[in-house]
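2024-03-11 09:14:02 DEBUG pipeline.ingest accepted 1 chain
2024-03-11 09:14:02 DEBUG pipeline.ingest length=121
2024-03-11 09:14:03 DEBUG pipeline.predict start
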Amino acid sequence: MSLKERAERLKTDIPALFLALKDGETPLLAKIFAGITVVYALSPVDLIPDFIPVLGYLDDLILLPLFVALTVKFIPKGVLERCRRESQNMWQDGKPEKWYYAIPLVLVWALIIFVIVKAAL
């Protein structure tokens, strides 16, 4: 599978994971992973900020596909295929960007800063 095909698949899989998150047939563990993946994908804040040279973009190129691949493994095939079909043109105009998707990542960074400050004192 080429890089372009993988990128296109990612555009379909993230909305499909969003739909699988709401699906009653999706197991709890898969819903947890899907929630983490969708929040990370939609968050305007990254784990590694984009202004950090190279690393800022590598997290999007590595972490997001890894989150998607991990989550897909836990979703039953029938549910995933149904969600993929439903999500074909779901975010055709681009992904929704909401500020509250950033809350989990902001909390992670706040915790990291807190631990560093505590260790330094």
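2024-03-11 09:14:41 DEBUG pipeline.report The mean pLDDT is 80.
2024-03-11 09:14:41 DEBUG pipeline.predict end
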